[in-house]
Design goal:
single chain; 254 residues; alpha+beta; 5-stranded antiparallel sheet
Length: 254
């Protein structure tokens, strides 16, 4: 028997086997992603980066496909709450918390909470067992920095805190098509996310740093990226693509 030839055949066979197994693992990983969302919209190098750094996505996460035209908005505070215990307003004869999720909410609490119909539930921003978070809605999109919190216990809403604002004209503000979510997410993944991160949500809305010394604030179209650990929030400016990282408000004001 020609052992040299047999050895060469075995080596080639093992190499082919490794290539086949590696390809099958790659296909399975891609299929696992695609069963929940269209992650193929991400650049190949981003997907490779995710593999190498064990960055995963939640089963319910989705990459939005809309790229609407949006503009910066300006507003002033009519009321700004610290969302702490001292800022809570107690609700007399509190209703059951189930009304939070149906159309009866405004009917029951609309006479108690001002402008309630201008807020929408932010499920990902809420804290189970403590409070529901609602964001102010402007032009159909959530303002991630303007909150209404409904605090509950024993199946009843007990108190609330609320930011109230007034929208102001912003000179020179022009509508522009926003950055696609896939591009925004790719930038966050490759430049900001630590190894082992699990992406929970990416959502379009408005975000802007709030300056206490200024009366008029500016909020910019932004993609919000949330992780499963919930400790940090990533915002991608949907016009300039600039990324900012902030501590999750739920950890700052439990």
């Amino acid at each position: 028997m020609d052992w040299r030839r047999a050895k060469s055949v075995l080596i080639v066979s093992f190499l082919v086997l490794n290539i086949v197994l590696g390809y099958q693992l790659w296909i399975e990983w891609r299929e696992r992603l695609n069963t929940t969302v269209n992650w193929t919209s991400l650049p190949p190098e981003t997907i490779q980066f995710m593999r190498e750094n064990n960055i995963q996505v939640d089963d319910n996460a989705k990459i939005p496909t809309e790229t609407p035209n949006m503009r910066e908005i300006s507003y002033t505070f009519k009321q700004r709450s610290d969302h702490g215990i001292g800022g809570r307003k107690e609700i007399v004869s509190p209703p059951e918390t189930r009304i939070v999720f149906d159309e009866e909410l405004v009917k029951v609490l609309g006479g108690v909470i001002p402008e309630l119909d201008k807020y929408a539930l932010d499920q990902q921003g809420s804290r189970e067992g403590s409070y529901f978070v609602f964001n102010r809605i402007e032009e159909g999109w959530p303002m991630f920095d303007i909150h209404l919190r409904l605090y509950y216990s024993d199946q009843r809403i007990r108190a609330y805190t609320q930011d109230l604002i007034e929208i102001k004209p912003l000179a020179g503000a022009k509508e522009q098509q926003v950055l696609p979510a896939a591009k925004a997410l790719a930038k966050v993944i490759e430049r900001n996310l630590p190894s082992g991160s699990v992406i929970k949500e990416i959502r379009l809305g408005y975000h802007g740093e709030i300056f206490d010394e200024l009366d008029e604030q500016v909020s910019t179209p932004s993609w919000r990226v949330l992780l499963e650990n919930g400790e940090e929030v990533y915002y991608v400016n949907a016009i300039s693509a600039e990324v900012t990282v902030e501590k999750n408000d739920a950890f700052v004001n439990p």
